[in-house]
Specification:
single chain, alpha+beta, Ubiquitin-like (UB roll), 16-stranded antiparallel beta sheet, 21% helix, 37% strand, globular
């Protein structure tokens, strides 16, 4: 309701205030419209709208003209009076500054910053721009096959000096490609063109004529040639001739390549047609350069590593083989553009390297020379770095402070290995699990207190090698896939009034790239030991509830797991796209190997059929999680992000439940933001008194977020989150927690809200405020925000009947949540 009121106010303000200061003969361009006079083959309107020269003022969600409204916020009459006073004062100050020999200050009119930074000046309709747009639309249509298209324009005048520009398009019958001919004197290039067109058919007979496709074909063919030795070939050498003389709405296309000509030795005034040159690499030199060009070089050694020459100027202090193993081409190879690009990316990714430059030079100026010398220049990054940071935290309304001390050594063993030490810790105010909601509400609880009752501390050590640590040589494999091996160990300690928890973790992970868009990670061994020391009150409360799920979740356990992860990102460096896709999936298994070994050894099991290590149960489960994302880029200042995520964890025989840290949860800054972290679900289960962290075996989540720029460093967002968690097994003590196909859709929680992002390029601070729009813990018919809550309030009234005033629960009221985060939520 509040959002609707704000929206109507903005709409009304934008409609009235945006034109009241226009001249009598001026009209505000409200909208561009495109109409098709006939219904022949459809054409996308988006590129047509982008072709129009004069664009109307931006509108939030296509409705609210908030930028235009902001432009008109400063009152010009008041601003004029203020400016006269400020100008008079400034003139007096400048007289004194000039008398002291100082430069005078420049006058900045009142409201200038607000208008230029936040606001957007009104777009006044320009008939000349409309005429130019008609010409541009016709050119666009001709380039896309509508040779006989006609475009006309007219205006639609609206009240309050507003106007719509309407472009009427008559496309008629488009032209199609009848035949494609080749006109290439170079026989080798002709063969390569045919080979390329067998791999992919970007332009083929039967397609509608499209000049963008022809230009794309030029680029693809150029890259195809440059990946086969044609180092100095460029796309300007490729041309297309189009013949539409048949007049039957078809064209013949000739794909040609300008021939290479050299002076004829027998006649200086004549030119000889010769094939284009195919270059080979003669030598490859890797050299480290100082950060400052004028820095003197103390010493220089020339080292040969296989087929590579390394000139060590004592700048990187790295083993030469750590550099040569990242060069994906070698002497005698033909020039291959893609390998050069990947080499650049690999070298730049080395932690010890700040910048990379790869240059090729012909060996000589001889007209017949086909050899290249390659020089790879590397500039070092600082070897060591120490950073200290701190920040305030807000987890579902509970305040805290945390900090981290980190140390990095980017070349600890001389092989570009990255060694990291991170020590983090924090103090937070957290709700006691043994304290009821009613007591907290009546006393203010931790939420309204500055008492920190939760301590977290955790050192971590990580060592990353730019290769695979394997018992076999993997150099050929490493040349293609940018392998890395990471050894990691950490200790996490958490002290709360209800329990003390320690988690020790160690892992080895292999990562590699299948391509620029596809990455893999395999952790063959992950070890975790979790020790929990519960307070007597907390232990008594767990036992009084008698829930095996909760009891098992808060017990000591050991995890020996294996995990495989795959990531796909459609974003390509250096390219722009309006549609970006992202996917991340993981499959994790734990305990199966250990249990099989115990069974093979005929080891004794306990009374529940479980095996233990050092008198501690080990976890036994299968888990998978998948995260799909789609980003729609509307323009430079607006985009929409979509996410669909889900996961399932199946507890097996040894522990019977998922470990607490491996379970799914709902709510929080990167999840369903209208709920505090771990307070949503499972399913439709409702218990307004218990404060245990809510976890589950199944997660389903979907998000939509519309993002837009407000001012230079401030971005806005409108979002809707939906999802929940469930358990696989039903529990009579907690009805509604299990996943059922016939009811899970009705148990999807929905939250929505507004967010602000302070984007400083190198980091982003995010503030999101969200309201609970649908709460699945309420009765059917009362779950949506706009529905009455009579049954819930009656339920609360019955609970409160036999309770003293200080322990009574509150009836239903609007539930909203404020989140503070770092970076985008997805």
């Amino acid at each position: 309701m509040a959002f609707a009121v704000v929206g109507l106010a903005l709409l009304n303000a934008g409609g009235c205030n945006s034109t009241k200061r226009l001249e009598a003969d001026e009209y505000l361009l409200r909208r561009n419209k495109i109409e098709f006079e006939n219904s022949q083959k459809k054409i996308s309107k988006d590129p047509l709208y982008q072709t129009i020269r004069q664009q109307p003022n931006r509108r939030l969600l296509g409705v609210f003209p908030i930028y235009l409204w902001a432009y008109y916020v400063p009152n010009p009459d008041r601003a004029e009076k203020v400016n006269l006073r400020r100008l008079a004062k400034l003139e007096k100050k400048n007289e004194k500054r000039l008398a002291r020999g100082k430069e005078p200050k420049v006058f900045k009119p009142h409201g200038t910053w607000w208008r230029e930074t936040v606001g957007e000046a009104p777009v006044i309709y320009d008939s000349a721009a409309t005429s130019r747009s008609v010409d541009q639309l016709e050119i666009y249509l001709i380039k896309h096959g509508w040779f006989n298209a006609e475009v006309t324009a007219y205006t639609d005048t609206l009240p309050n000096q507003r106007i719509n520009a309407v472009y009427s398009i008559r496309k008629r019958t488009p032209y199609y490609i009848d035949s494609i001919y080749l006109a290439i004197p170079d026989v080798r290039l002709t063969s390569l063109v045919m080979e390329s067109r067998e791999i992919r058919t970007n332009v083929k007979a039967g397609d509608q004529f499209n000049i963008d496709k022809l230009n794309e074909e030029r680029t693809l063919l150029t890259n195809f040639f440059r990946n086969r030795g044609y180092y100095d070939f460029n796309k300007e050498l490729i041309y297309f001739d189009v013949d539409s003389a048949h007049n039957n709405h078809t064209v013949n296309v000739t794909l040609g390549i300008i021939p290479r000509r050299i002076p004829y030795s027998g006649d200086p005034d004549s030119l000889l047609l010769v094939p284009y040159k195919r270059y080979q690499i003669r030598s490859i030199t890797i050299i480290d350069q100082p950060v400052a060009r004028l820095t003197p070089i103390a010493s220089s050694d020339t080292i040969r590593i296989g087929e590579y020459i390394v000139i060590d100027q004592n700048q990187l202090h790295v083993k030469p083989r750590a550099l040569s193993q990242n060069v994906l081409f070698k002497p005698q190879d033909y020039y291959f553009l893609d390998r050069v690009t990947r080499t650049y990316q690999r070298m730049s990714a080395l932690p010890i390297v700040r910048s990379t430059a790869i240059q090729f030079e012909p060996v000589s100026d001889d007209i017949d020379n086909t050899l290249l010398d390659c020089t790879i220049s590397l500039t070092p990054a600082p070897k060591q770095n120490v950073a200290l940071e701190w920040r305030g935290t807000n987890r579902g309304g509970f305040l805290g402070v945390s900090g981290a001390l980190s140390y990095k050594n980017r070349n600890i063993f001389g092989g570009a290995e990255l060694f990291e030490i991170n020590i983090s810790g924090g103090l937070e105010a957290q709700r006691l699990l043994t304290q009821s909601v009613a007591v907290e509400e009546s006393t203010g609880g931790v939420r309204n207190s500055l008492t920190f009752n939760t301590l977290e501390f955790g050192p971590e050590v990580a060592l990353t090698f730019p290769k695979f640590l394997l018992p076999i040589r993997s150099e050929r494999f490493s040349k293609r896939t940018d392998p890395r091996t990471t050894l990691r160990a950490n200790l996490s300690y958490q002290l709360r009034p209800d329990y003390e928890r320690t988690r020790s973790f160690a892992s080895i992970t292999y990562k590699w790239s299948e391509s620029d868009q596809k990455q893999w990670a395999i952790s063959p061994l992950e070890l975790s030991l979790i020790k929990i020391f519960k307070s007597e009150l907390f232990q008594n409360q767990l036992e009084s509830i008698g829930d095996p799920f909760l009891l098992n979740s808060f017990q000591d356990h050991f995890i020996q797991g294996t995990r495989i992860a795959y990531t796909f990102n459609s974003r390509r460096p250096g390219t722009a796209s309006k549609n970006l896709y992202f996917y991340h999936g993981e499959l994790e298994s734990a305990g199966s190997t250990l249990r099989a070994l115990y069974q093979l050894a005929n080891a004794p099991a306990d009374e529940n059929g479980n095996y233990k290590i050092l008198d501690i149960n080990f976890a036994h489960y299968l888990k998978t999680i998948h995260d799909f994302r789609y980003y729609r880029i509307h323009n430079e200042k607006m985009n929409t992000a979509y996410r669909l995520a889900g996961g399932v964890g199946v507890p097996l025989t040894n522990l019977n439940v998922l470990p607490f840290e491996k379970s799914f949860f709902g709510g929080g800054a990167n999840n369903i933001r209208a709920w505090q972290a771990r307070t949503l679900g499972p399913g439709s289960f409702r218990d307004p008194e218990r404060n245990f962290d809510k976890i589950g075996d199944i997660l389903i989540e979907g998000n939509i977020e519309y993002r837009f720029d407000l001012i230079k460093v401030l971005e806005g967002a409108l979002f809707v989150d939906a999802g929940n968690i469930w358990n696989i097994r039903a529990d009579q003590a907690r009805p509604g927690i299990d996943f059922q196909v016939d009811r899970f859709l009705s148990e999807i929680a929905v939250g929505g809200g507004i967010g602000f992002r302070f984007n400083f390029d190198f980091f982003l601070i995010r503030i999101d405020a969200a309201v609970q729009m649908k709460d699945p813990s309420l009765d059917p018919g009362e779950r949506w925000l706009f529905q009455g809550k009579d049954r819930y309030n009656e339920y609360i009234r019955q609970i409160n009947e036999d309770r003293p005033p200080q322990s009574q629960l509150s009836p239903y009221e609007w539930r909203w949540n404020l989140n503070l985060g770092i970076g985008y939520p997805f």
